[in-house]
Amino acid sequence: MTPVTVFAGQKVALFGLGGSGLATASALKAGGAEVVAWDDNADSVARAQDSGIGTQDLREADWSGFKALVLSPGVPLTHPEPHWTVRLAREAGIEIIGDIELFCRERRARAPEAPFVAITGTNGKSTTTALIAHVLAQAGRDVQMGGNIGTAILSLEPPDAGRVHVIEMSSFQIDLTPGLDPTVGVLMNITPDHLDRHGTMEQYAAIKERLISGAGLAVVGIDDGPSRAIAERRTGDLVRVHVPSSEVLCTDALTVREGIVRDPDGTALADVNGIGSLRGAHNWQNAAVAVAVARALGLTGEAIQAGLSSFPGLPHRMEEVGRRGAVLFVNDSKATNADSTEKALTAFRDIHWILGGKAKEGGIFPLVPYFQRVAHAYLIGAASDAFAATLEGVVSYTRCETLEVAVPKAAENAAASGAPEPVVLLSPACASYDQFRNFEIRGDRFRELVQALP
């Protein structure tokens, strides 16, 4: 835990008592603050009370005594409308912050030179966060990884000059961190997302930009327009990362072509070819960003390459879960929309594609250009009719309804295909809710079925 001492002796309101909220309340209490916490969920309030955290319905509280409102990132700050606690805090004239802001203040007070890497982006930020943490840890660094990737930041060990915090940040978390000042700030990419919470694309991009505005070094992917514009506005130290989709190259960026990460002068820095967990152009960008961050923190080229080569990947994100003869089995259950599945379809050929579930708007129509990579499709779940209509006459398919039917059938057909490395790919392009509570359970079931194959 990181005790938060910057509010010692002061009274703080806290709303949102999920995992990060409980961790925040405990950290504030350990640092000497008086915490008054609440949640709209009675079970969450009960858990807080069992942990010794003071609770009160904040509608009935005297807000003049609070120094700040610490808000869970899942609670609306601006759109579609401010949460009632936000209105009360603004009426009382107190600041509204999140747990990562508390960490930043504690770091400035305790160990301002402590290395702090913050990563954001619409896509790829979890893999990049895990990859950076892995490369640093393999090189012997004391690494604490958390934030949006799973572990609440204040549950981690405190900042220290010999310890690196590698923190994934969502736009919601950035919005609650006005004092964000990482040693290295990473912006992967920006595409439309969470507009129901931010109002407009311009506002969403502006929030993402704040992560690098206060960073000592900014590492920015420049393969989309909004990120490229942000890089052009950056006045401090900057590393651009570019994965060219054509022969047009950016001459002042770290580039990745044919799996080789190169300096702007053409010097090869790392090779990601043959690393199963880093297949595809999107993972080349992840690797290039990790190279840039690791170099900034003083790692040698040899240490960086060793870390990349040993990266196991993240569960449910193009995760290689097994082989049967020449057949490779890949769990990409995290791909809950067409945009995510596109990454997997571009990374493989001779694909036996298991897809379906609760469809998102647009279905799989955006994936038509990649159908030539698909040997056969296996349809499961509620989207079967709609997806069959898109595949009809272009890709052969089998209606399987469930994973239990699809996995052995796909395995049998892939093994009989004669292709040098056929792939059985679970990349559903759908939410899981028709058959599974979440994508993790869906991916775990796929892994179990693969392991049970003869």
TrEMBL record:
<dbReference type="InterPro" id="IPR004101">
    <property type="entry name" value="Mur_ligase_C"/>
</dbReference>
<comment type="pathway">
    <text>Cell wall biogenesis; peptidoglycan biosynthesis.</text>
</comment>
<keyword id="KW-0547">Nucleotide-binding</keyword>
<dbReference type="GO" id="GO:0008764">
    <property type="term" value="F:UDP-N-acetylmuramoylalanine-D-glutamate ligase activity"/>
</dbReference>
<dbReference type="Pfam" id="PF02875">
    <property type="entry name" value="Mur_ligase_C"/>
</dbReference>
<dbReference type="InterPro" id="IPR036615">
    <property type="entry name" value="Mur_ligase_C_dom_sf"/>
</dbReference>
<dbReference type="GO" id="GO:0051301">
    <property type="term" value="P:cell division"/>
</dbReference>
<feature type="binding site">
    <location>
        <begin position="121"/>
        <end position="127"/>
    </location>
    <ligand>
        <name>ATP</name>
    </ligand>
</feature>
<keyword id="KW-0436">Ligase</keyword>
<feature type="domain" description="Mur ligase C-terminal">
    <location>
        <begin position="316"/>
        <end position="430"/>
    </location>
</feature>
<dbReference type="InterPro" id="IPR005762">
    <property type="entry name" value="MurD"/>
</dbReference>
<dbReference type="Pfam" id="PF08245">
    <property type="entry name" value="Mur_ligase_M"/>
</dbReference>
<dbReference type="InterPro" id="IPR018109">
    <property type="entry name" value="Folylpolyglutamate_synth_CS"/>
</dbReference>
<keyword id="KW-0961">Cell wall biogenesis/degradation</keyword>
<dbReference type="GO" id="GO:0005524">
    <property type="term" value="F:ATP binding"/>
</dbReference>
<comment type="similarity">
    <text>Belongs to the MurCDEF family.</text>
</comment>
<dbReference type="GO" id="GO:0004326">
    <property type="term" value="F:tetrahydrofolylpolyglutamate synthase activity"/>
</dbReference>
<dbReference type="GO" id="GO:0005737">
    <property type="term" value="C:cytoplasm"/>
</dbReference>
<keyword id="KW-0573">Peptidoglycan synthesis</keyword>
<keyword id="KW-0963">Cytoplasm</keyword>
<keyword id="KW-0131">Cell cycle</keyword>
<keyword id="KW-0067">ATP-binding</keyword>
<dbReference type="InterPro" id="IPR013221">
    <property type="entry name" value="Mur_ligase_cen"/>
</dbReference>
<dbReference type="InterPro" id="IPR036565">
    <property type="entry name" value="Mur-like_cat_sf"/>
</dbReference>
<feature type="domain" description="Mur ligase central">
    <location>
        <begin position="119"/>
        <end position="294"/>
    </location>
</feature>
<keyword id="KW-0133">Cell shape</keyword>
<dbReference type="GO" id="GO:0071555">
    <property type="term" value="P:cell wall organization"/>
</dbReference>
<dbReference type="GO" id="GO:0008360">
    <property type="term" value="P:regulation of cell shape"/>
</dbReference>
<keyword id="KW-0132">Cell division</keyword>
<comment type="function">
    <text>Cell wall formation. Catalyzes the addition of glutamate to the nucleotide precursor UDP-N-acetylmuramoyl-L-alanine (UMA).</text>
</comment>
<dbReference type="GO" id="GO:0009252">
    <property type="term" value="P:peptidoglycan biosynthetic process"/>
</dbReference>
<protein>
    <recommendedName>
        <fullName>UDP-N-acetylmuramoylalanine--D-glutamate ligase</fullName>
        <ecNumber>6.3.2.9</ecNumber>
    </recommendedName>
</protein>
